[in-house]
Amino acid sequence: MPIIKEVKPGSLAEELELVPGDEILKINGIDIKDIVDVQFALADELINIELRRQNGELWELEVEKDYDEGLGVEWEHPTVDKVHLCHNKCIFCFVDQIPGQMRKTLNVRDDDYRLSFLHGNFVTLTNLKEGELERIVRLKMSPLNISVHTTNPQLRVRMLANKKSGEILNQIAYLAEHGIEMNTQIVLCPEWNDGDELDRTIRDLYPFYPAVKTLSVVPVGLTKHRRGLHKLRGCTPEEAKRVVEQVHAWHEFLRPKLRTSFVHAADEFYVMAGLTVPSSDYYDDFSQIENGVGVIRTFLDEIDEAFPKAPKQLQTSRRKVGIITSVSAEQTIRNSLRRLDDVHGLHYEVFPIVNHFYGNNVSVAGLLTGTDITSQLAGKVAHLDTLLLPDIMLKDDEDICLDDYRVEDIQKALDVKVTVVPATGMGLLYGTLGYTQSLPPRRRYEATLKNAVGLD
Predict the structure, then answer these.
(1) Among 257, 428, 252, residue whose Cα is nearest residue 339
(2) Does residue 305 share a domain with residue 283?
(3) Where in the sequence is the domain holding 231, given as residue range(s)?
(4) Do 137 and 269 reside in the same domain of the chain?
(5) What stretches in the chain show pLDDT beneath 70?
(6) Could you say which DSSP state residue 10 is in?
(7) Which helix (H) or strand (E) holds 265?
(8) Same domain, 122 and 238
(9) Is residue 257 classed exposed, middle or buried when 0-12, 13-18 and 19+ CB atoms within 10 A define those classes?
(10) What 3-state class would DSSP assign to 6?
(11) What is the DSSP string of 12-49?
């Protein structure tokens, strides 16, 4: 049941004098079972709330509100009831590759279609109970993000180790028929679902366009913590190049038919292959940027847009700046900063951090840890005025890295001021020049393992 964990200041819930521990029973006569029921029940201007107070008293409240105004509470569970957990045992599961000392929330194997609808999580649809597919349609829970990986039923059963996983095309067909929009993904595992199998999956999915709006191909993420797991390997540079060429060939075939690129290769493939990312029009509306598709192009375009508007001098007479980045983004950062080489009094250094925590195969910025930052920069940055840390490396609601290192811990260990900046072109330029007070509000989000490396 929906039990309130926290009431936000200034919220509708505070106005109604709701408190932690209160249990919502009905809204406008609708029994509340999960977060979806809450969302739909609140989509009105006049609401009636039946609740059970902490002391057992039953209350009934009536209130007028704005149509799109929520209660302003945090629930004991993000889905109100318990999160639907994953029933798969995927050969590439990233949770299986996380060190044991990580915080508990990073080890939760969720596979919940409600979180896909509300927050964009990718789900496999293998754990749906009877009637839940129909509920998705009835409540118009669109769009959904779906991890397909392969449309070959036998291969999908092997890759996900779930007998129900072979039904994916039937599930997609049903959702498409009833107007549910879907973004789909493939976690590419060499010698499993690449080559002809990749062609088959694209061939099976594109006829569902526009219901299946996009398909992304992302490389498998492999850490050094894989003892006892399937023997998988990452793509070689040659294989990465073939994936890019294969996807581009489909792009050339599909663009005239669909008037969209439909299928995209994640940026990591271009980095691994040493290729330049395509122009902006290739990515259509950047629907899968949170999945690593078009991040580099967006950053480059932001730099081009921000540079003419950026101050042409330092805020102070001299400035020494360090920029933390990932191995995969190093060259992009260096190339982007060259236009600042003529700024008088500016000295900057770029520090690509190798991911020893998860292993060298993991090269995205969102998975860097305070442990690696402090160990690799020890004794190298105390002479700097500040060290720029992209916000993508931090948890959504706290200045904390994946390994629980806080920004203040990094500052103390390295004896240097750390400035957190948006992971954008403007964030890099203004942060380097010292005009951080002119930056827009930080673009904060959870450094999610699932979308960063294709979990499920």
Answers:
(1) 428
(2) no
(3) 95-291
(4) yes
(5) 1, 96, 100-108, 396-397, 440-456
(6) T
(7) strand 263-265
(8) yes
(9) exposed
(10) strand
(11) HHHHTT--TT-EEEEETTEE--SHHHHHHHT-SSEEEE
